[in-house]
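Why predict the complex rather than its parts? Because the way molecules touch one another can change local conformation, and only a joint prediction can capture that. The input here totals 226 residues.
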Amino acid sequence: AQKVTQAQTEISVVEKEDVTLDCVYETRDTTYYLFWYKQPPSGELVFLIRRNSFDEQNEISGRYSWNFQKSTSSFNFTITASQVVDSAVYFCALSETDDMRFGAGTRLTVKP
Amino acid sequence: DVKVTQSSRYLVKRTGEKVFLECVQDMDHENMFWYRQDPGLGLRLIYFSYDVKMKEKGDIPEGYSVSREKKERFSLILESASTNQTSMYLCASRPPTEGFYGYTFGSGTRLTVV
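Output of the joint prediction:
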């Protein structure tokens, strides 16, 4: 069965600090997709990134970067120079077929 | 702009009531999903549907049922609401692509059962 673990329940940082959100997954499939979503205080989940299991290349998008390591079944998310607007709950998710399983989420608070 | 629309943002119902949560998408997606979100538990899959009149149980289907009579609409039904069903309910849709696409989510319905 697929499973996603986000061990960090809450993280608090001061603006401009770098922060890494951890995600560890379990799956028996060789083909799968990993996702990160952001849920700001408004409540609607926003898609951030998708990675397939055959592409371990790290990705950078502005202040966001993702580190995918199959050897440790991890898909970690780093925000560089955090800003107050980054405050949100972040979810990691795993999809093998048409449904998706989510981690419990990490609440990130960025203080000015 | 493509959308998933949930009919109510906030809902208060009494214990024992039959409750309908409605979700409509305008993207012609085959797959639709209902999750509930609780603090510390993340999003848990209740039911999903691959096509009209088809449904599959997710991880926590007890106490819920669903209806998919039209492709664009997926309803979650609480047959007899109980206080432990107080939660945020999220609807999502996606094309049938073996996991490739992410979900498009609705803005959620916060249900309180009193």
